[in-house]
Design the sequence.
C-alpha cells in the first residue's frame, strides 16, 4: 500500500468546515483513498473512500486531486464530537490485506 | 443497527496469567479482524478469520492464539501475559474478507496487565 503523509494536528472552530489534507504521491492506479477516524479510546470508524472522483456521504466529502497525489477530507460543519484522530489510508479496494495505520491527524474542534 | 460486540470491555490480569477476549460480529458478517492498540500508538493488525479459517496474520505474538467459531464469533486467547500486552484490543467484522477496508470496529477491550 502506498505511504501517506498527514499533518500531526489541526484545530477548527465549531460550525466551520474542517479540511484535512493527505499526501499520497506514490499511489497506484488501482489504489483507493480511505478515511477513518478514531474518537478517544473508541474503535476506529470508517468515514469514506474514493478512487478518483470526488465523493460525498452523510458524514463527509472527499476531494481527490486530478493527479491523485493528494486528497482532502471535508467535514462541512464540524461539531465538538468530531474531535478525533483522522487516518488516511491508501490501498486496493477488494483486498483482505491488513490495514496499515499511519500517525493520522489529531483534529481538535474548539467552541 | 447491531454493531460489533466485544467482551469484556475492561479486564485486569496479572503477569503470566491468561486472558480470553470475545468478539461477536455484525450479523451475516463472516470475517473478523483483531487489532491491538498500545497507549499512544496506532492500531496494529494481529490476525483475521474468514469462514472460520485464518485469512491473514499480522504481528500476533506466539503467546496469543485466536479462532472463529461456527456462529462466526471469535475469541483471542492470550497466555503468559506481559506488562507490554496492556492495550486496547479491537475486533472488527466485514461482510466478506475482501471488504477489510470497510470493516466495522467494536468498542474494544481494555486489557491491563499488572
Sequence:
Amino acid at each position: 500500500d502506498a505511504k501517506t503523509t498527514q499533518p500531526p494536528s489541526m484545530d477548527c472552530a465549531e460550525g466551520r468546515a474542517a479540511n484535512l489534507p493527505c499526501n499520497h504521491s506514490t499511489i497506484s492506479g488501482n489504489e483507493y483513498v480511505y478515511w477513518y477516524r478514531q474518537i478517544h479510546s473508541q474503535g476506529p470508524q470508517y468515514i469514506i473512500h474514493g478512487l478518483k472522483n470526488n465523493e460525498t456521504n452523510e458524514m463527509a466529502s472527499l476531494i481527490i486531486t486530478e493527479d491523485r497525489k493528494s486528497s482532502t477530507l471535508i467535514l462541512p460543519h464540524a461539531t465538538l464530537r468530531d474531535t478525533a484522530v483522522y487516518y488516511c489510508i491508501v490501498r486496493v479496494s477488494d483486498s483482505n490485506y491488513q490495514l496499515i495505520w499511519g500517525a493520522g491527524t489529531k483534529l481538535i474542534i474548539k467552541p | 443497527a447491531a454493531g460489533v460486540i466485544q467482551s469484556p470491555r475492561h479486564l485486569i490480569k496479572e503477569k503470566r496469567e491468561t486472558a480470553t477476549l470475545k468478539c461477536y460480529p455484525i450479523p451475516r458478517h463472516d470475517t473478523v479482524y483483531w487489532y491491538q492498540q498500545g497507549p499512544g500508538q496506532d492500531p496494529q493488525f494481529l490476525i483475521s478469520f474468514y469462514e472460520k479459517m485464518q485469512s491473514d496474520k499480522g504481528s500476533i505474538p506466539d503467546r496469543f492464539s485466536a479462532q472463529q467459531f461456527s456462529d462466526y464469533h471469535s475469541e483471542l486467547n492470550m497466555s503468559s501475559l506481559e506488562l507490554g500486552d496492556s492495550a486496547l484490543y479491537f475486533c472488527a467484522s466485514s461482510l466478506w474478507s475482501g471488504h477489510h477496508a470497510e470493516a466495522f470496529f467494536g468498542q474494544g477491550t481494555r486489557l491491563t496487565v499488572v
Observations:
- The two ends of chain B are 36 Å apart (CA to CA).
